[in-house]
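Checklist before submission:
- one chain only
- standard amino acids only
- sequence pasted in full

Submission:
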Amino acid sequence: MTNGLQQYVLERRARVNRALDEILPPADTRPATLHSAMRYSVFAGGKRIRPILMLAAAEAREWGNGCDQLGAAIECIHTYSLIHDDLPALDDDDFRRGKPTCHKQYSESVAILAGDALLTLGLLTLVTHGEKTGRRDLHAKYRADTMAVVARAVGTVDGMIGGQMADLEAEGCVPTPDLVQYIHQSKTAALIRASVVVGSLCGECVEEEPALHNALCLYGDRIGLAFQIVDDILDVVSSTEQLGKTAGKDARQAKATYPAMYGIEGSRLKAQRCLEESLDALGVFSDRAWALRGLARWIVSRAN
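Returned file contents:
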């Protein structure tokens, strides 16, 4: 990551963290155990890559101000998915972001409710955000569009929940290219794509500039898939200390992953191809998309 991009990421991450602190109930608000667990999981670390991608897309559309709470909403929804993903009934992991998972720090019942609460808070924030901003009062259609984009990304047909179900059912099965593609596009890429699309919706005149919006949709789709392919590779080649979560679990649980299907080198080639397609999609933008380009390269080259 270049110095310029690193500074960009640090500044946007700080903005998102401030917005998260604003929308999350204080830890001592009744029921305090639940609100403490929500804050524990949200502030346990994390790259904030989804909200940062959202902000970068908004800036590429020449609107980056007043969108921080939208990024915070997406991060709440992402954290919900991690809390539930780590539960014993699903992927059963004791560590996330280098710390005990929510159900290990608190209890299974608290973790379930904390995940539910973060999903609800994220969706509520999407609906209420923008009622008063520096740009304009966001009309009902805008709020409905952002809600619809994110809700589909979380849903059962081709969103996170559907991808998680398919992932569970595929354990121990012989993977097929179609199955692996569906799981990864749904479980991970869908919310990353949605983050970029919401950022595009922050821009003015989406209807008048469909080429720019469609380019960001394609970028989000390709870089979202690349993100999960790299995650699969890192699960094989990295240590638990490097990842901040238990390494090698995919193979032990016989998960349907890209390395299981194509091997490490084949998976790296597919991630590289996704990167190239994401960068090609940004060809309609000028230097305004420099952060999106840098983030895409970093996602594919990252070590954790």
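Reviewer check: Confidence is low (pLDDT under 50) at residues 132-137.
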